[in-house]
């Protein structure tokens, strides 16, 4: 899953990137409103953490541009303490949630997880597909209760497929959602990650839909 962090304060931006990366996300950074607006229009993100007080273009204007252009990714806005009018304006402009600075990083991670789950139509923090359980809170995967060792990219591929269980997901979609923008992307490596996952997961769980991509086929 891929996150865009829009924050102009360098220390906080670095902390957010570190925490989200450690939680298993691919993370892109934007340090001003214009860059954020462009990235949100041309790249695929599963969620955005958006500070409203940005240089060049304020966060509220960025959000309005995205929503006006039909961009529907979940957005968590960051506001200054006591600026309740910013929260109201942000929600009215299309934000899905807000968090007041200063905040605990664990709360931000929990809110991001919840936004991504809701966008995928998932209610629980645990994604279940047959014997496979992915705990979005701890970034753990088990099969029949036994912990599964996955690389970071294998986890991202499985996480995206489980958030979209039953849907056909193309290699392009996976490439866009498991790599940050500055990563050397190669859609051919998706086949490698899927092949590795198939060796670790129950047989038949990941189906190949010829010419289209992959589908996670959950029993029942």
UniProtKB/TrEMBL annotation:
On this chain, the residues bearing 4-aspartylphosphate are 51
GO terms classed as biological process: regulation of DNA-templated transcription
Q: Which CDD domains match?
A: REC_OmpR_EcPhoP-like, trans_reg_C
Q: Which UniProt keywords apply?
A: DNA-binding, Phosphoprotein, Transcription, Transcription regulation, Two-component regulatory system
SUPFAM superfamilies membership: CheY-like
Any keyword Transcription regulation?
Answer: yes
* Domain OmpR/PhoB-type, residue spans: 124-218
Q: What Pfam families does this protein map onto?
A: Response_reg, Trans_reg_C
What positions does the domain Response regulatory occupy? Answer: 2-116
Output one GO MF annotation. transcription cis-regulatory region binding
Q: Would you tell me the Gene Ontology cellular component terms?
A: cytosol; protein-DNA complex
Query: Which positions make up the DNA-binding region?
Result: 124-218
Q: What name does the UniProt record give this protein?
A: Two-component system response regulator
**From what organism does this protein derive?**
Thauera aromatica K172
